[in-house]
Amino acid sequence: MEKLTQQEEEAMQVIWTLGGGFIKDFLEKLPEPKPPYTTLASTVKNLEKKGYLSSEKLGNTYRYAPLIYAEDYKKKFMKGFVGDYFENSYKELVAFFAKEKQISADELKEIIDMIENKKAE
Fold this sequence. Notes:
Shape: elongated
Number of strands: 2
Number of domains: 2
GO molecular function: DNA binding
Largest sheet: 2 strands, antiparallel
Strand content: 5-15%
Number of helices: 6
Protein name: BlaI/MecI/CopY family transcriptional regulator
Order of helices and strands: HHHEEHHH
Organism: Pontibacter diazotrophicus
Structural class: mainly alpha
Oligomer: single chain
Radius of gyration: 18 Å
Keywords: DNA-binding, Transcription, Transcription regulation
Family: Belongs to the BlaI transcriptional regulatory family.
């Protein structure tokens, strides 16, 4: 699975949210400033070439659908991110956000509950 550019990730976020569709659908859901239609069409074609999307020709247009789940993408690239920036330590990742005051005590408690409940399963 190839890493996506920021532009490709933004497009995939919309495509994952919609579950697929046409370029005009994706364009409507992208935040401002929206790229030109042709730019988005090129981005979508690149995503298809990279194996992230499938396409189905309908008349004179194409309907695109994701081939890779958002969760699978997150898992793969979060592992790389944690490895590159936090020495493969999720503890260091959480500690970083705690030090930067980007995570509250209540959120940390929720994370602990998730971990404990996962162990009980």
